């Protein structure tokens, strides 16, 4: 991603700016030090929701969750003509509705030619060590997929489903990154079964199209 989604090169890296949201910051922080980012050509890294000045001659790599708020901020960057080119990397697959909004704004601002790449990275988990990961918080900063939120007495069906979907999204991202399909075993008649059923459905939907599978 930091090499514009191309194979790593041994020559001097191209200078670039990295823009991330809070979710992206949590994912990147355990993986790279500031020195390592600089060695990869990242001269500046900033949060998406802070005020940023225009740097017209530098490409920008975005690593963000595809929420409505984040897509709106990216569209404002197009409108303000902040950067020379845009490489958009979404932590989870961007919904079609948000992709259409992005395309419409890019067309309106006449910057389609400067949007070089758009990628779904399937990276909604935090890797702390080689064999240790945790699921990320949602885009609103609230940890949905927790034991407490799934088992508290006053949880509504909507809250439980949100928690389950958050966990499934993170787990699917993990296995998509590993490129492997797991054997799923779970206890019955509880949240674990809900997670396993939804996760199983995601795998089956992905494997159904052999031309576009992640595995």
From TrEMBL:
Pfam families: Sec1. This is Sec1 family domain-containing protein 1. GO terms for biological process: vesicle-mediated transport. Belongs to the STXBP/unc-18/SEC1 family.
């Amino acid at each position: 991603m930091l090499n514009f989604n191309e194979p790593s090169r041994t020559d001097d890296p191209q200078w670039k700016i990295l823009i991330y949201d809070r979710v992206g910051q949590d994912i990147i922080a355990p993986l790279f030090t500031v020195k390592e980012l600089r060695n990869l050509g990242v001269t500046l890294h900033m949060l998406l929701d802070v005020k940023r000045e225009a740097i017209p001659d530098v490409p920008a790599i975005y690593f963000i969750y595809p929420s409505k708020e984040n897509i709106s901020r990216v569209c404002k960057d197009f409108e303000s003509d902040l950067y020379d080119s845009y490489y958009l990397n979404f932590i989870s697959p961007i919904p079609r509705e948000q992709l259409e909004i992005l395309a419409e704004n890019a067309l309106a601002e006449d910057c389609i030619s400067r949007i070089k790449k758009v990628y779904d990275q399937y990276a909604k988990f935090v890797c702390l060590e080689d064999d240790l990961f945790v699921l990320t918080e949602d885009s609103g900063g609230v940890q949905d997929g927790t034991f407490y939120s799934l088992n508290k007495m006053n949880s509504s069906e909507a809250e439980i489903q949100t928690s389950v979907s958050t966990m499934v999204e993170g787990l699917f991202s993990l296995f998509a990154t590993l490129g492997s399909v797991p054997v799923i075993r779970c206890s019955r008649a509880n949240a674990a079964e809900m997670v396993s059923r939804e996760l199983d459905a995601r795998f089956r939907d992905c494997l159904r199209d052999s031309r576009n599978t992640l595995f």
